[in-house]
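Action item from last week, closing it out:
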Amino acid sequence: MDSPLLFAGAAGDGYLIRVYRGRSRLQGLPSFTPRLHAFVALVPMTGDARGRVLLADFLPKHPTKIETALALFRGGDVDASVRLRSFPEHVMKSSLLDLGFAGVSSQTLTSIEEFNEQRKTRLSLLGYNCYSYEEELLRFLDIESEY
């Protein structure tokens, strides 16, 4: 995980996060390309982080390098990490994101960051990728997958 703790986790009863499945274009590609990249949007409903959105995804460390694309398309794997980004909640209305409500979780943001620290560090198109990470995170959040 590349980022430091973004939010103070508000542990305790009553802590709730709205969870969304998201799709966006692959990093480095024009905005008219298909939205193939999977991510999870977390919107705290209580605590210090209320009014913010945390976008969590898994991607190559160097997603725009041609060497990364070639390695992946040849069936190989590349160095990767979980990326956590904090934005104002209005980013949820962006036309660049395709979002679908997945559920509500009572996990704290601190526990989510601890979960992310244990994730794999290699990505491959046919193995562990952004969709795999999304499914693992949704299971951790106790959200039923629709796929």
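Closing note: Residues 17-140 form one domain.
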